[in-house]
Amino acid sequence: MKILPFLVLWLWCSHSLAAPALWSATKAGQQLWLFGSIHLADQRLSSLPPALLHSLQQSEQLFLEVDPGTISPATLAPFLSMPPGDSWHSRLGAPLADELEQAIDDMALSPLKPLPPWFAVLQLTQARAQRLGFASARGVDMQMMELARQQHIPVLGLESPGLVFGLLASLPERQLEADFVRHTLDELDDLQQHLDQLLATWQAGDEQALLSLLRTEQSPPLNRFIEQDLLLSRNRLWLEHLKNQAPQKALLVVGALHLYGEHGLIRLLERDGYTLNKIEDTPLY
C-alpha cells in the first residue's frame, strides 16, 4: 500500500497556475533552498519551475520529509496492528464505524478493515483522489526524487517514517481518532469543492488564508494536535537536522504548510540567523 501523508495539499494546475515560491536561506556559507510541495497531482503538472530545477542541480543533497525508500511493511507494522478484541465499533462508536465501513465497501477496499480506523480513512482518501486522477507519483516530491536520482544527487529524509506514523497512531490515546475520522469522511463528501477551495487559496499566494483554512476546519483539540505535533514539533526537529547534518548546499521539498506561519520553517530559519529571500520564477503551465 502506498502511504498518504496526513498534511497533504491536493492541488493541481489550472490552465495558468502561478509557480509556487522557491525560498533561499543562507547562513555562514550554507545555502539552503526550500520549496512547498504538492504531494498529489494529475497529468496537468507536467513541468516544474526552472528555478527549482536549477536549485537541484546546484545541491549536494535533496531532503524530503521522509525518504520513501525507508517505508516498508516491517517499518509500519508496529503502528498498524489492532489489539486483540479491539474493533472499529469500540474505537469510533457504532454510527461512525458503520459509516466508515460503508465507505470502504463502496470503494472495494475491504482489506483495510483489520487496520486502525485512522489509517483506513487515509487510504480511503487516497483512493478517492486517485479516482479523480491524482497520484503521488505525479507530485512534486516524487518528480524531484526521480530527477535527483537521475543526476546522482543523494535523497534523504528529514525524519524517519516512524515519527509521523507514531504521531498518527497516538490519535486513539489522545481521544482524537473519532474526530479525525469524522472530519476526514466529511471532506470526502465534497472532495472536489474542498480541492477547489485549497487551489484558489494557493493560486492567490495567500499564505495566511491557507493557514486560516487549516485552523477553522477542525475541532480545537484536533487543530492543536495538527499545529503543535504534526507541524511545529516536526519543523523544530527538521531545523536541528539541517543545522547539524545538511551539507553546504541542499534543497528541501516539503509540504507547503510546513513553510509558513509563525512556527513555519521560514520563520524558524530567520530566527536562527538565516537570511531568507523569495526567488521569483515564471508561471507553470
Automatic annotation (TrEMBL):
<protein>
    <submittedName>
        <fullName>Polysaccharide biosynthesis protein GumN</fullName>
    </submittedName>
</protein>
<feature type="signal peptide">
    <location>
        <begin position="1"/>
        <end position="18"/>
    </location>
</feature>
<dbReference type="InterPro" id="IPR002816">
    <property type="entry name" value="TraB/PrgY/GumN_fam"/>
</dbReference>
<dbReference type="InterPro" id="IPR047111">
    <property type="entry name" value="YbaP-like"/>
</dbReference>
<keyword id="KW-0732">Signal</keyword>
<dbReference type="Pfam" id="PF01963">
    <property type="entry name" value="TraB_PrgY_gumN"/>
</dbReference>
